[in-house]
Design goal:
Elements (H helix, E strand, L loop, with lengths): L6 H9 L3 H7 L4 E4 L2 E4 L9 E4 L4 E4 L4 E3 L1 H9 L3 H35 L1
Antiparallel strand pairs: 1-2, 3-4, 4-5
Helix pairs in contact: 3-4
The structure holds zinc ion.
Length: 116
């Protein structure tokens, strides 16, 4: 059975889950060197990598390959596409709840400051 996802859903999963957070979530080894976040490339097992927040892509300079969030899940978890999307959706909703709580707290703080 083929499950269909909308372009919007796929776009959100590729762009709104920070790739660095996903790397942590997938328990891919990572380190900081020269101020850059470097992850262990799941393909060649080297740290010649970097992530780009503007595009939300992880790049391996050795493989000369970019990985988006969906690619990373597919490669690391050996999931089918549908399972990878479900997995990312789980992370995305966790993420949204977290940022929602933050917004709520900021609103509350602003309100409190006003009261004084
Ligand atoms: Zn590589």
């Amino acid at each position: 059975m083929h499950q269909k996802f909308t372009q919007k859903e796929l776009y959100e999963l590729r762009n709104f889950i920070p790739v660095n957070d996903l790397i942590r979530e997938l328990k891919i080894p990572f380190k900081f060197s020269e101020g850059y976040f470097r992850f262990l490339c799941p393909v060649c097992q080297e740290f010649q990598t970097a992530t780009k927040t503007e595009t939300n892509l992880a790049r391996c300079f050795r493989c000369e390959r970019n990985f988006n969030t969906i690619d990373l899940v597919l490669i690391c978890q050996h999931f089918t596409f549908v399972d990878a999307i479900k997995f990312l959706k789980g992370i995305y909703s966790k993420h949204q709840q977290r940022s929602y709580r933050k917004t709520e707290l900021n609103g509350l703080l602003k309100h409190m400051t006003k009261a004084f």
